[in-house]
Design brief:
Distance between the termini: 193 Å
Number of helices: 4
Structural class: alpha/beta
Strand order of the largest sheet: 10-13-15-17-18-19-21-23
Order of helices and strands: HHEEEEEEEEEHHEEEEEEEEEEEEEEEE
Number of strands: 25
Radius of gyration: 51 Å
Helix content: 10-25%
Largest sheet: 8 strands, parallel
Oligomer: single chain
Length: 405
Amino acid sequence: MKPLAYLAICATILLSVGCSENLITDEPRQTDVEIEPGTEDTERDEEQDPASNEEQEPEQGEENDPETGDENDPEEEWPAILMTDYIYFNDVAESFDYPAMISGSWSIEMADNDWFAVSPDHGEAGDLTITFTALTDNLSLQMRTTTLTVICGEDRWDIEVKQREHQLYRDFDFDFLFELSRRGLMPNPHSQSITLEDIEQLKQITELSVFGAYSYPEGKHLGKLTSLKGIEFFTELTKLSCWGNHITELDLSHNPKLKKLSCYNNDLTRLDISNCPHLTYLNCNNNQLTQIDFSNNTELRDIRVYNNELQDIDISKCVPLRNFNCANNRLTELDMSRNKHLYYLTCFNNPGRDGLFRVLSWFDNETIPTLAEPTEVRDSMKAQFTTKSWTYDGAPVAIDYIKAD
């Protein structure tokens, strides 16, 4: 090659290299990697915020999809028996219905008892209702307990059953208990918290007054009491006053020390004093009594049964009797032949029989006593016996004293 031509080629190469260097220094060079549209900003952000390169937390709800679930978890199995495992009754007879879900044929095993029952006690699979029943009140002061087992195939379901111990407040009429509470003798009945200690205090009481009021001349009883249920705890009671109420029955069979009873102006249809042998005074005027048993009241000295519904009365065992008022009843006759201490008798306004009210006595119409026999209180007193006739249902009735043989 000629020298001149060689120089021309070298000059051309140098000129070309110089132009390339000018391009590199003036503008950034382009790479040969292709960049997807929309990723330029992402890459630039990653360069500016290194923390963005860390693994992001999944949003709430993405990890546990309720529709897809976890394929690795086994399916949840329901028990063969699903129902209550505890039953609690109050101290009274009552029933409860409980739902149950049982997957197969089932039956119930239960310990022998006389106070609890269940129905049905066997059946087939399904959703059902089982009735549990306390058959009787729990009258003891101890809680009742028993157990039963529901059996379905090899599955067993134990149920504990309890009945509350007897609640003492149930042994009292509410209004009577309220009156006792007002007098500071018992807790407030609304608290339902009577204890054995409270009962023991009642056993120390000897006199009790829970009388109401009586409106004259209307004859209205203004007291609120209709029952003295609970009086049986007053075992030391010697004097009871409950007049002027609306009491319909009075059972004093648990009050053997009673000596004086005032229960007049009530609505009594039944009075039990058969276990009150020391009773000396009884006033049950203005009630609705049809009979009274005096066979065990051998110490009675004063009996007042005026204005009742008595059709017969036996006072033969009341030998010490001194005062007897049986007027305004339905008696046809009267035997007081053994009541020789009697000095006061009022028996008018009874129907008698055939116009006569016959009284068997220790005297006759000609020897009616005018003085009573001497007593511990006084040597003598004026005797008063009914002698005048009266009218009953428009017909005259005369009294006839007949001396017993």
